[in-house]
Amino acid sequence: LHARCSQRLQSPRMELCHVPASREKGWYLALMAPNVKGPNYAWLDPSRLYCHPQGLQDCVADLLQPFQGDAIDMVAGIDAMGFILGAAAAARLQKGFLAIRKAGHLCVQTVAQPYSDYSGREKVMEVRSDAIAPGLRILLVDQWVETGGTMRAAIELVERLGGVVAGLSPLLCVPTGVAAICMENSEGGKWIQERYKCSHCVPPHLQPRFDQHQ
């Protein structure tokens, strides 16, 4: 898998119908394309992963696998790329989907939370104030957790409204509910992983490469 990922991460083209004979966890990571536009952009573009029918299905299945048997009432996705995986996860779980938006897009009463994104830019996210009833168990989904600022702000919004991220597992009795393709071992990423049940798709032997953006 490591050799295939190394080769495909550099590939300018990818056959979107090809499915490997052995679909190990994370095989679809090789579909992502590296940044060719410079430091103002994310280091990988997952668009080809989302375009690949089997790749998208396997990615969502891997993200949800750790939550099998956990009580989840709703899936929430973070603006904007978290909408893709979040809506796909909600459809698979047959649950509703809540969009957590960047400020300024919702025409109803909202609750807002300032945060710094992975690039250090100061932003504000918001959610409609009547979307989360107290005790509602939320699975939070985003595309990537790099510095952790965006996801932590979403967690704070959910918890301020009385929601639970994403409820208590009847077996583990610990908070559950954060999923992303990759969760980097940054200070913020570790803070989230130490406090919430988390799921991501990067195999352990590839995690250092993703942490170093290689």
UniProtKB/TrEMBL annotation:
Positions of the Phosphoribosyltransferase domain: 69-163
One Gene Ontology CC term in the entry: cytoplasm
The UniProt record lists the keyword Hydrolase: no
UniProt entry keywords in alphabetical sequence: Cytoplasm, Glycosyltransferase, Purine salvage, Transferase
InterPro entries per UniProt: Adenine_PRTase (IPR050120), PRTase-like (IPR029057), PRTase_dom (IPR000836)
Main enzyme class: transferase
Pfam assignment, any one: Pribosyltran
Domain of life of the native organism: Eukaryota
Places the protein is found: Cytoplasm
Pathway the protein acts in: Purine metabolism; AMP biosynthesis via salvage pathway; AMP from adenine: step 1/1
4Fe-4S found in the keyword field: no
Main location as per UniProt: cytoplasm
Biological process annotations from GO: purine ribonucleoside salvage
UniProt catalytic activity: AMP + diphosphate = 5-phospho-alpha-D-ribose 1-diphosphate + adenine
EC nos: 2.4.2.7
Protein family according to the UniProt entry: Belongs to the purine/pyrimidine phosphoribosyltransferase family.
PANTHER family linked: ADENINE PHOSPHORIBOSYLTRANSFERASE, PHOSPHORIBOSYLTRANSFERASE DOMAIN-CONTAINING PROTEIN
Record text on subunit structure and interactions: Homodimer.
Protein name: adenine phosphoribosyltransferase
Source species of the chain: Chloropsis hardwickii
Upper classification of the organism: Eukaryota, Metazoa, Chordata, Craniata, Vertebrata
Gene: Apt1
